[in-house]
Amino acid sequence: MYLTDKQRTIYDFIRTYIETHDIAPSYEEIRDRFGFHSLSTVFEHIRTLERKGAITRGRSNEKRAIRIPGFGKKSIAVPLVGTVAAGRPLEVYEIRETIDIPEEMLSHGENVALRVRGASMIESGIHDGDVVVVKRQSSAENGQIVVALVDGEVTIKRIYYHKDSIELRASNPEVGPIHVTRGQDLKIYGILIGLYRKYNM
Questions:
Q1: 169-177: long-range contacts (C-beta < 8 A, 24 or more apart)?
Q2: Active site includes 120?
Q3: pTM for the full model?
Q4: Pairing of strands 186-196, 145-150
Q5: Are 25 and 33 in contact (CB under 8 A)?
Q6: Which of 75, 120, 135, 171 is catalytic?
Q7: Domains, the chain, ranges and CATH?
Q8: Which residue, of 14, 33, 70, 173, has the greatest Cβ tally within 10 A?
Q9: One of 40, 60, 74, 157 is an active-site residue; which one?
């Protein structure tokens, strides 16, 4: 995500204000801080920051409805344990990095983070280089996004159960499904519970 110098300055002001006052600035305070001539200019900047994912807004009738995603919430350090790259063995490496994840995103049990390589799930919002948060478990419900190993090779797909096979379906029309039939080795590593993307702001 790219922010212009002006957008970055406004974002920094909002974040610092929340850190100092434990509440967001009003649109009037943003207008006065930056010398805008009207509130419509503030609205436009706020809409742009929201569209870029830098902020969120609450109900429209709230005067101080701006939020910084994840800011001020308790976070848990989740180990980054490996890389998911379709068609390759699961690359697991020594844990040297953790990802701070908001507590409410996590599930009971063991949660781990994996870096994604490839674009097979792009239409589900998962891009190359993203980090997925996975709950370790060996079963999944129909339609859930799973990290699975098929004959030792790892993939991240939606799982669908059919009468005579299990389908691992990509979210990219250029990537065909994987049909797992009898005799093949399928292991579910875990189910997707969250997505972490680092923005360059």
A1: 170/120, 170/121, 171/120, 171/121, 171/122, 171/123, 171/124, 171/126, 172/119, 172/120, 172/121, 172/122, 172/123, 173/123, 175/86, 175/119, 175/120
A2: yes
A3: 0.63
A4: antiparallel
A5: yes
A6: 120
A7: 5-67 (1.10.10.10), 75-196 (2.10.109.10)
A8: 14
A9: 157
